[in-house]
């Protein structure tokens, strides 16, 4: 991927397109997809879209009972639920081993699960919680499942990032926020990490036909905001005192899932990878002083040198199975 490739392609879809619009007429019979967080919010809409097109969907879930109930309520009884907590890397490896024992290939890995703006929380060996859940857990899962991705005929890995990546690059001197914790900057770092992860995974995987993309799904009120108070959301102009969404430009969950499903299925992305997407198209590169909500991707989130550096940091921290070219 080069910066010159990071520009819109003229997709027939847009910010208002829904998951149903993107998936209309597609047949994914015989395909296997893994969707983290696939039982709530954008993840549930993603699972619904893939299953409706005939894919077998595996849903790793921190709360497997809740996941099974949610999928049953959505009449998605054919999905497989695998227990997994993204902040427990041994558990991630166990989930990957379980998946590897049940399927011969994975066509789509959709990293949808995430947390946002949480209070300072230490997990594992004292790691910062948002960086671990949003990045290191997904990094480990993708590495452990890589042989199954390489076994597919043109697998795609789709990583949900966010416009929050504009808040900061990687805090190389202190990625786990041992000092000066700021919940929003910690979130922003984790979202930059999501984007950089896709860049380097694509570099390593493209010779095996494994292509990776990161994306901003848009502004959507889902369970992602569960650690924010109602007062915080009112102050930001997102909702009113009743919790009703009033913010301009907010999407429905179906519209929010559309870009990920477009990334997973669009022929416009054949032969491409390592790109950052938004509104069902490739995003433009935005200037450092542009407002976050004006769209685009910052150069720091698609920089190949930073992506390679983050990969080395993540591999050393997690001891994940190496992905080699």
Helices and strands, with pairings:
Elements: H1 19-23, E1 32-36, H2 41-52, E2 56-61, H3 64-73, E3 80-83, H4 89-100, E4 108-111, E5 122-123, E6 127-128, H5 129-150, E7 156-160, H6 183-205, E8 211-216, H7 230-235, H8 253-265, E9 275-278, E10 281-282, E11 285-286, E12 297-298, H9 304-318
Parallel strand pairs: 1-2, 1-4, 2-3, 4-7, 7-8, 8-9, 11-12
Antiparallel strand pairs: 5-6, 9-10
Helix pairs in contact: 2-8, 4-5, 5-6, 6-9
Question: In a few lines, what is going on in this structure?
Answer:
With 325 residues, the protein is an alpha/beta fold. It is built from nine helices and twelve strands.
Keyphrases for this structure?
alpha/beta, globular
Can you give a write-up of this model?
The chain is α/β, with parallel strands linked by helices and 325 residues long. It has a single domain, classed as 3-Layer(aba) Sandwich (Rossmann fold), CATH 3.40.50. The chain has nine helices and twelve strands. The strands form three sheets. Strands 3-2-1-4-7-8-9-10 form an eight-stranded mixed β-sheet, with helices on both faces. Helix 2 crosses helix 8 and helix 5 packs parallel to helix 6. The longest helix is centred in the middle third of the chain and has 23 residues. The protein is globular, with a radius of gyration of 18 Å.
């Amino acid at each position: 991927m080069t910066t010159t490739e990071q520009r819109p392609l003229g997709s027939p879809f847009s910010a208002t397109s829904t998951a149903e619009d993107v998936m209309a007429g597609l047949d994914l019979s015989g395909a296997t997809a893994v969707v983290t967080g696939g039982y709530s919010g954008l993840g549930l809409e993603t699972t619904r879209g893939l299953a409706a097109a005939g894919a077998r969907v595996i849903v790793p879930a921190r709360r497997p009972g809740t996941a099974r109930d949610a999928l049953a309520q959505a009449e998605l009884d054919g999905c497989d639920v695998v227990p997994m907590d993204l902040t427990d890397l041994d558990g991630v490896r166990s989930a990957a081993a379980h998946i590897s024992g049940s399927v011969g290939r994975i066509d789509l890995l959709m990293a949808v699960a995430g947390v946002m703006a949480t209070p300072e929380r230490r997990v594992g060996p004292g790691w910062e919680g948002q960086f671990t859940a949003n990045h290191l857990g997904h990094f480990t899962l993708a590495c452990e499942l890589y042989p199954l991705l390489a076994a597919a005929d043109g697998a795609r890995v789709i990583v949900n990032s966010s416009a929050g990546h504009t808040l900061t690059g990687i805090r190389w001197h202190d990625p786990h926020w041992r000092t000066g914790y700021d919940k929003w900057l910690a979130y922003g770092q984790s979202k930059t990490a999501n984007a950089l992860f896709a860049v380097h995974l694509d570099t390593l995987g493209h010779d095996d036909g494994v292509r990776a993309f990161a994306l901003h799904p848009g502004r959507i009120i889902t369970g992602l905001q569960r650690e924010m108070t109602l007062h915080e959301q009112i102050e930001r102009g997102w909702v009113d005192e009743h919790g009703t969404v009033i913010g301009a430009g907010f999407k429905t969950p179906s519209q929010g899932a559309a870009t990920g499903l477009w990334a997973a299925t669009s022929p416009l992305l054949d032969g491409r990878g390592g790109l950052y997407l938004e509104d069902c198209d490739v995003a433009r590169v935005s200037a450092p002083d542009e407002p976050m909500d004006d769209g685009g991707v910052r150069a720091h989130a698609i920089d190949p040198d930073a992506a390679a550096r983050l990969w080395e940091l993540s591999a050393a921290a997690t001891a994940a199975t190496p992905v080699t070219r």
